[in-house]
Amino acid sequence: MPAPPWAESPACKVLARECGDLLVRALALVAHGRDTLLGLRVLATTLTWVGLLVYAQVPTLVTDGQTRTLLAEAGDPGQLPGLRDASASSRRALNGAWENWLAQQFAETVKDLYSTQEPADIDMREFLHACTPYSLSGGSQTTKERSPEIYASWREHHAAFAAAGYTLEDMLAASMGNKPQRWFDAVGRHCGFVGPRRGQPSRFRSEVSLLPTLILAGVSEADGASIPMAEWLERLISRFGVVFGPHPVARVMADRAPEEDLEHNRDLLSEMLASVGLARRYSDGLTEILNLSALWRRSK
């Protein structure tokens, strides 16, 4: 099958390659693992998680060329209030990134329709008036009479094509009832990447069901039976932007978690992995991550 359009963007090629490699490792668990049903469950979770990562990372990569930091909670919900709030903030930041990316796509589409020749404002208002979307299930109806008003407010600070893009994004978001955000939270809770299941605020988490996928995300084909946890955590950050403990990218977040919370969160993740047999903890404080590709492989 052809690659999705975002994967061809120069800014997204590294993410696309890492997602592809992760899916290959998950498929190998099905083909060569000891328990095919377990492998299929991990594959399903991995496919879901990759979809969430694409939603989270592609808009920022395309618009800014940067990987977004996804700070994930590992302990009981609310156990570390400072980290909980920082994680919730990193989750909310995805909403604005998605909206900006969508507005940019709309602006480029409108520009193509007008052959890059900027029309007069009256012509643009007539065009937007004709583009008002219908209300979808759960959304509110944005009336045609409001589109010129929305366009005028954006036009005060933006060029015509950019203002048109933001106007179309505003009208689409209202008609959809913020469905992209709701989709992300619902699917994230299903695969164990967003929590808590009940209560607010929604934030990134690592539930037990997601742990095998995270293990696969941080290992490589050349690894042996285990790798140091520090190396595994570094790969999660460099490949997918997922952070659990102290790291420079966590320290420059707009809503920064306390350093002691980050350290405790990393230790909680280590304990959780060891409790389900996916890591080994030693008395000197070191933790080794067990490579599922080797651990669950059928003996020949």
Verbal overview:
This protein is mainly alpha-helical. The chain folds into two domains: 5-93 and 192-295, no CATH class; 95-179, no CATH class. The protein contains twelve helices and seven strands. It has helices at 13-32, 36-64, 81-113, 121-130, 147-155, 160-176, 179-191, 211-217, 229-240, 248-251, 259-275, 292-295, and strands at 70-71, 194-195, 203-204, 226-228, 242-243, 279-281, 287-290. The strands form three sheets. It has a three-stranded antiparallel sheet with strand order 4-7-6. Strands 1-5 form a two-stranded parallel sheet. Helix 2 (36-64) crosses helix 3 (81-113). The protein is elongated and about 70 Å long. It starts with 12 loop residues before the first helix and ends in a 5-residue tail after the last helix.
Give the proportion of residues in helices. Answer: 55-70%
* End-to-end Cα distance: 32 Å
Unreliably modeled segments: none
Order of helices and strands: HHEHHHHHEEHEHEHHEEH
Number of helices: 12
- Biggest pleated sheet: 3 strands, antiparallel
Shape: elongated
